[in-house]
Design a protein that fits this description.
Blueprint: H1 19-30, H2 34-45, H3 49-76, H4 83-90, H5 93-126, E1 135-141, E2 144-149, H6 150-167, H7 170-198, H8 228-243, H9 248-251, H10 259-288, H11 291-295, H12 302-311, H13 313-337, H14 339-347, H15 366-382, H16 385-413, H17 428-447, H18 449-460, H19 462-479
Antiparallel strand pairs: 1-2
Length: 485
């Protein structure tokens, strides 16, 4: 009698994250080093205090509107991969793949590298031997000058540590996320409170006579020739950078308890919470620093400048600690979430096969985590992550717009599909998001056509990779007798 061999049981994700965990992943992934630096950069493009605050409000509302639309999609399809799945289902596998491709090779890995370096820079305030000034290696190859410094090695160490932490289960990773997110929100809250309480600032800093005809950016030099709308859009791109990664929790939807409701609620709560944090922080900065001084702060370290004016020399050190806490938690959130996208792509046969496997004990996509960690480390050591972020700042917004448009497509495509959460204000809210976002995309391209064009090119490079993996997938299916049309 022939023995029946049992197939090994498929390892699946376990739903262990609650609403607080999910909200902390949203907020923690968004709040990094941006709020401590970006306001100064934005002030250079838009040196009008009322409009600076308006930029952060618009950015927050736009992000919240996007989160409301994503909430319905996440409630309808609470699968690992989140936005990748939404784009695949609304359009086709190619568009979903191009998003995941860009996320892995540029957006997420570039953000992880940049935030890790930001952590290292501020660690160098306390340990100079670990700063960017400590050059370890320097050489020239065919006219290309390469410099390796201690901060890059610290950045790689941070990525390795957080990757390791997240290999040992989503609960462990979420615990680290909760701890550091609460800590950085508390640090920003203390700075805001103290600034208004004992900062000896000036309320008149919030108001300034403004005329579009006489509008003139302050810095950087390339901004001086920009018109009002282009400068406004480029300044907004810096705010949107600080608001980015709000969709991270959709990637890990399968690991959330009652995801049909928890994921949408966490998206809305997290984005609104971050908007309040950002607006209050900018108000505190403006209360202490007139906007024209904010625009020319050395290295754009506006938070450190504000803290130093309040507390003296120790203030800059306190902010350095706050930024280290913030960037560490931010990197953890991004490292935790994105490998779920690569896992979903691999399960569809559109990424490295090993990335589609979970650890049998910890139920984490260990191979995807390791791949992400290696590539992020390469970018950290190469020093190219900063350029990649510039090139893809608008592509992230472009994919978000396509995803919100996908909400309309999926309502028509799958009208019978259960929707535990329906987008509030539909269709007005998602239409507003689309129109405002498209406006900024157009003017970001006008204001910085070179970076935007190169960013789009990086996305399109993914097409040959898609063709390769599609053929590999089809050949495998044919061999296994599972050919699908």
């Amino acid at each position: 009698m022939a023995q029946v061999t049992e197939l090994p049981k498929e390892i699946k994700f376990e739903a262990k994250l609650g609403l607080f965990d999910a909200t902390m992943i949203v907020m923690g992934s968004m709040i990094g080093s941006g709020i401590f630096i970006a306001p100064s950069i934005m002030a250079g493009y838009m040196p009008v205090p009322q409009l600076l605050i308006l930029l952060w409000v618009i950015g927050g509302i736009l992000t919240a509107f996007g989160a409301i639309a994503y909430g319905e999609l996440a409630g309808m399809m609470p699968k690992a991969g989140g936005q990748y799945v939404f784009l695949r289902e609304a359009y086709n596998p190619l568009l979903g793949f191009l998003y995941g491709w860009t996320l892995f090779f540029v957006i997420q890995s570039g953000f992880i590298a940049a935030v890790a370096i930001a952590f290292a820079k501020y660690l160098g305030v306390f340990i100079p031997a670990l700063s960017e000034n400590n050059v370890i290696l320097k050489f020239n190859i065919f006219g290309w000058n390469y410099t390796l410094n201690s901060a890059q090695l610290v950045g790689v160490g941070v990525i390795a540590l957080l990757t390791c932490i997240n290999c040992f289960g989503v609960v462990f990773g979420a615990f680290v996320q909760n701890l550091f997110t609460v800590s950085k929100i508390a640090a920003i809250a203390v700075l805001v409170f103290v600034a208004f309480l004992i900062g000896n600032g000036n309320w008149s800093n919030f108001f300034e006579n403004f005329s579009i005809e006489k509008f003139q950016p302050i810095a950087p030099p390339e901004a001086l020739s920009m018109g009002f709308l282009a400068a406004f859009a480029v300044a907004m791109s810096k705010a949107l950078f600080a608001y980015d990664a709000w969709n991270s929790i959709t990637f890990a939807a399968e690991e959330v308890k009652n995801p049909h409701k928890t994921v949408p609620y966490s998206l809305v709560l997290g984005t609104i919470g971050v908007m309040l944090v950002y607006v209050l922080a900018n108000m505190a900065y403006l209360y202490i620093l007139p906007i024209k001084e904010m625009a020319v702060v050395p290295d754009n370290r506006v938070a450190a400048e504000v803290a130093e004016r309040i507390f003296g020399v120790i203030g800059a050190q306190l902010i350095a600690v706050a930024i280290m806490i913030s960037t560490f938690g931010c990197d953890n959130g991004m490292i935790l979430a994105a490998p779920r996208v690569y896992y979903a792509m691999a399960k569809d046969g559109l990424f490295f096969k090993g990335a589609g496997k979970l650890h049998p004990k910890y139920k984490t996509p260990v191979n995807s985590l390791i791949l992400q960690g290696i590539w992020s480390s390469v970018l950290t050591l190469s020093g190219t992550y900063s350029a990649l972020l510039t090139y893809t700042a608008f592509t992230s917004l472009l994919f978000n717009v396509l995803t919100v448009i996908g909400l309309f497509i999926l309502r028509k495509k799958y009208p019978e599909r259960e929707r535990p959460y329906k987008a509030w204000g539909y269709p007005v809210v998602p239409i507003i998001y689309i129109l405002v976002a498209v406006f900024f995309i157009i003017y970001i391209i006008i204001g910085d056509p070179k970076s935007s064009g190169f960013g789009l090119l990086l996305v399109l490079i993914g097409i040959p990779a898609y063709i390769y993996w599609s053929k590999t997938k089809n050949n495998t299916n044919t061999i296994n007798g599972e050919r699908k049309t």
